[in-house]
Specification:
By secondary structure, this protein is mostly helical. The protein folds into two domains: 37 residues, no CATH class; 45 residues.
């Protein structure tokens, strides 16, 4: 249900029926009318497993990304402070 409520179809519907100016709100009456797909239990379980598996992969990718960003920041710090020297290639003579 969480995935369905956060999906694009429900988002579009809530944007259409939300009331108010500064703080848009969906009333309980409108919420009861939301078009929520309801597959059979077995299919729901298959969908949930697929989504959970994908979320686990995304979390692992994000964790790896964060670790790589920390390494990058450390390397940039070392290079910019001169703690590690950067070799400069000699200019080639094309003359």
């Amino acid at each position: 249900m969480v995935w369905a409520l956060n999906g694009p179809a429900v988002k579009r519907h809530s944007d259409r029926v939300a009331e108010g100016n500064a703080q848009k709100t969906v009333t309980l009456g409108e919420l009861a009318k939301f078009p929520i797909p309801c597959p059979e239990d077995g299919e729901q379980e298959d969908i949930a497993r697929a989504i959970e598996s994908t979320e686990e992969i995304l979390i692992a990718i994000e964790d790896r990304r964060e670790k790589l960003l920390k390494v990058k920041r450390g390397l940039m710090h070392d290079l910019l402070t001169g703690e590690v020297s950067v070799p400069v290639p000699e200019a080639e003579d094309h003359g």
